[in-house]
Amino acid sequence: MLTINNRDKIEWHEGMNVRDVLVAMKYDYPLITVTVNGELVTEEKYSTFNIPDNANVIVFHLAHGG
Q1: How far apart, in Å, are the Cα atoms of 11 and each of 19, 52, 63, 64?
Q2: How much is the pLDDT for 65?
Q3: 1-19 burial, b for 16+ CB within 10 Å, e for fewer?
Q4: What's the CA angle centered on 13, arms 8 and 18, to 5 degrees?
Q5: What's this model's pTM, rounded to 2 decimal places?
Q6: Which tens digits make up the pLDDT trace of 7-31?
Q7: Fold of 2-61
Q8: Three-state DSSP class for 29?
């Protein structure tokens, strides 16, 4: 089981990566920052950074404007 943003829970599976979490949560905003157990994961690693079971994943939707 993974905890997303300290509130949502999703089932974990072997080999699960950051991209899998974003798809499962339907997060498709273009400016996203992700940490897994406090470790920043860069966008180029979303498909290769495997998430361990029971991890805490934080997804920040960055906003900009004027």
Answers
A1: 14, 11, 28, 32
A2: 66
A3: ebebeeeeeeebeeebbbe
A4: 65
A5: 0.90
A6: 999 999 999 999 999 999 999 888 9
A7: Ubiquitin-like (UB roll) (3.10.20)
A8: coil
